Amino acid sequence: GAVVSQHPSWVICKSGTSVKIECRSLDFQATTMFWYRQFPKQSLMLMATSNEGSKATYEQGVEKDKFLINHASLTLSTLTVTSAHPEDSSFYICSARDDGGWRMNTEAFFGQGTRLTVV
Amino acid sequence: QKEVEQDPGPLSVPEGAIVSLNCTYSNSAFQYFMWYRQYSRKGPELLMYTYSSGNKEDGRFTAQVDKSSKYISLFIRDSQPSDSATYLCAFNRLAFGKGNQVVVIP
């Protein structure tokens, strides 16, 4: 089946530093990828939709200057948390939509997530 | 009113029992209904999806959608310890329930 690889799976960083998280579709092309964050015992919250070759679309309340998204190729999207603070500590998950999926709105596969801890 | 309501549980059942999970939603524009399974510290895995009212079966799993009542359900028959996970309902991949933790006791 389709695989989405997310790296790193966990990271600890100092307050004020930046962290980059990668999301790769390994065996399919993904024009569209999605970034979510999930707090403990909470649901997934869509942060932004990443589109290859164009600017990401951010959900209301998500700071685009803080969460930089780059989708430079059909298989890679990156999320950079800039000037991270302890309140940014969370589980970040990406998903990628298979361009070749015949059910365009449902063929989305999740990465394994990245647990970010800012100290 | 929240867009999606899902009782977080936890729900403990003995092995072999039927697990019944459900979500209600308020946005009538939702067209796609999905259930994801998420193991601890892992990303969600798509279990089932549907885009119409009615039942859809896949092995031991049955997804049920009632658009008129804005209510979806997931049933797991002959539950196994490996089914122990958090199950999230999702709508159009934009709105997720909080997840319902299920524990199947051997």
If you had to describe this structure to a student in words, what would you say it looks like?
The complex is a heterodimer of chains A (119) and B (106). Chain A is mainly beta. Helix content of chain A is 0%, strand content 50%. Chain A has strands spanning 4-7, 10-13, 19-25, 32-38, 45-51, 57-58, 67-73, 76-81, 90-97, 108-110, 114-118. In chain A, strands 2, 4, 5, 6, 9, 10 and 11 form a seven-stranded mixed beta sheet that branches. In chain A, strands 1-3-8-7 form a four-stranded antiparallel beta sheet, with no helix packed on it. The N and C termini of chain A lie far apart (37 Å). The relative contact order of chain A is 0.33. Chain B is mainly β and 106 residues long. Chain B has strands at residues 4-6, 11-14, 19-25, 33-38, 45-50, 54-58, 61-66, 71-76, 85-91, 95-96, 100-105. In chain B, strands 2, 4, 5, 9, 10 and 11 form a six-stranded mixed beta sheet that branches. A five-stranded antiparallel beta sheet of chain B has the order 1-3-8-7-6, with no helix packed on it. Chain B is globular and about 40 Å long. Chain A binds chain B through residues 4, 6, 34, 41-46, 91, 93, 95, 103, 105-106, 108-113, 115, and chain B through 4, 6, 8, 31-32, 34, 36, 41-46, 49, 51, 88, 90, 92-94, 96-99.
SSE topology sketch:
The complex is a heterodimer of chains A (119) and B (106).
Chain A: E1 4-7, E2 10-13, E3 19-25, E4 32-38, E5 45-51, E6 57-58, E7 67-73, E8 76-81, E9 90-97, E10 108-110, E11 114-118
Parallel strand pairs in A: 2-11
Antiparallel strand pairs in A: 1-3, 3-8, 4-5, 4-9, 5-6, 7-8, 9-10, 9-11
Chain B: E1 4-6, E2 11-14, E3 19-25, E4 33-38, E5 45-50, E6 54-58, E7 61-66, E8 71-76, E9 85-91, E10 95-96, E11 100-105
Parallel strand pairs in B: 2-11
Antiparallel strand pairs in B: 1-3, 3-8, 4-5, 4-9, 6-7, 7-8, 9-10, 9-11
What assembly state would you assign to the polypeptide chains in this entry? heterodimer
Low-confidence stretches of chain B: none
H/I helix tally of chain A: 0
Shape of chain A: globular
Can you summarize the main beta sheet of chain A?
Answer: 7 strands, mixed
Order of helices and strands of chain A: EEEEEEEEEEE
Sketch the topology of chain B as an H/E string, one letter per element.
EEEEEEEEEEE
Question: What's the N-to-C terminus distance of chain A?
Answer: 37 Å
Number of extended strands of chain A: 11
Spatial extent as radius of gyration of chain A: 14 Å
Biggest protein-protein interface?
A-B, 22 and 24 residues
